[in-house]
Amino acid sequence: MSELPDFHSAIVYLINADAARATLPFQRAHRAEQHATAFWFNELVEETADGAVVRQYLVTAGEPTRVETAEVTLRPELCSPAMSAEKVAMTGFAEGWTHLGDLGVAVMPNDALYAYAARKGWSWTTDEITDGVAATEEDIARLDGTPVPAYLLGHHVDTENGAREQALVVGEIVRTDEDGVRWVGTLPQGCVGAPVFIGAGLGGNSFKLVCVGVALPGDGHHPIATFDRIRTALHALAPAPAPDPRPVELPKRRWWQRRR
Predict the structure, then answer these.
(1) CB burial class (10 A; 0-12, 13-18, 19+) of residue 58?
(2) What domains are defined for the chain?
(3) Are 241 and 115 in contact (CB under 8 A)?
(4) Is 154 helix (H, G, I), strand (E, B) or coil?
(5) What DSSP character marks residue 191?
């Protein structure tokens, strides 16, 4: 990142500091397909005298969730104490997601993942994309058709061994009246469903970190489902939780080795 201007380096630093533990890679179990990235999001329900009330979801692109059994890769930094299993198989995976209308986005309440961790005697140690970072309608309106630097935090697929390392992909997004917001160019395999960030200038040397939305599958430029629309769809959801998918530990695979 040394070739990037200081402004961009500061954005990269913030993303790594605040959201590095917010992402989770998954794919269809037992097959090298439907690779995607999900991430934790805290929806603000209300502010009270005692603090904020939030609902927490996993968020991702809708299409990759349409599998009966998914394989989720665990990273040691997401678990306390660290899990011995490197992967978890989740049966009934498709039924655990709620699809947000025609946005191309699916969400899963975190109950099942928390329950699984409790049964195994550990807890999640994650970061979350917060409502304050998620883009508002005003943030999206400021995208005026000129490409702006953008940063996607996802898990690409290693072509040699299938490992799902986290990567910060640097590129550009653009908004047009015809196509909405899109990532300029293609994305590495496994990065659909990941959060896309920009640094919105506030004048002078100041900026705020904004999570624009969710990268969706696409040919050529990838569409991005923006958080102003996602937030509206979440507010309309009934409070009843989605069906509970059942996580099961998968045995370690000797061919897979985490790169340090």
Answers:
(1) buried
(2) 6-250 (2.40.10.120)
(3) no
(4) strand
(5) -
The Cα 96–Cα 164 span in angstroms is 22
Q: What is the sign, positive or negative, of the torsion defined by CA atoms of 97, 99, 105, 107?
A: negative
> Which phi and psi (to 5°) does residue 64 adopt?
-65, -15
If you average pLDDT over every residue of the chain, what do you get?
A: 86
Q: Is 50 helix (H, G, I), strand (E, B) or coil?
A: coil
**Tens of pLDDT, residues 204-258:** 778 899 999 999 998 878 999 999 999 999 988 855 444 555 555 544 432 222 2
Give the separation between CA 212 and CA 200, rounded to whole angstroms.
10
Residue whose C-alpha is closest to residue 117's, from 160, 56, 74:
74
> How many other CB atoms are there within 10 angstroms of residue 220's CB atom?
9
Burial per residue of 225-234, b for 16 or more beta-carbon CB atoms within 10 angstroms, e otherwise = bbbbbbbebb
Is residue 60 a contact partner of residue 38, using CB atoms and an 8 Å limit?
A: yes
Q: What is the pLDDT of residues 18-44, one digit of tens each?
A: 999 999 999 999 887 889 999 999 988
Residue 257 in 3-state DSSP? coil
Number of Cβ atoms within 10 Å of the Cβ of 212 = 28
Angle at 190 between CA 170 and CA 13, to 5 degrees: 35
Q: How far apart are CA 102 and CA 115, in angstroms?
A: 30
ω into 81 cis (within 30 of 0): yes
Contact 190, 182 (CB under 8 A): no
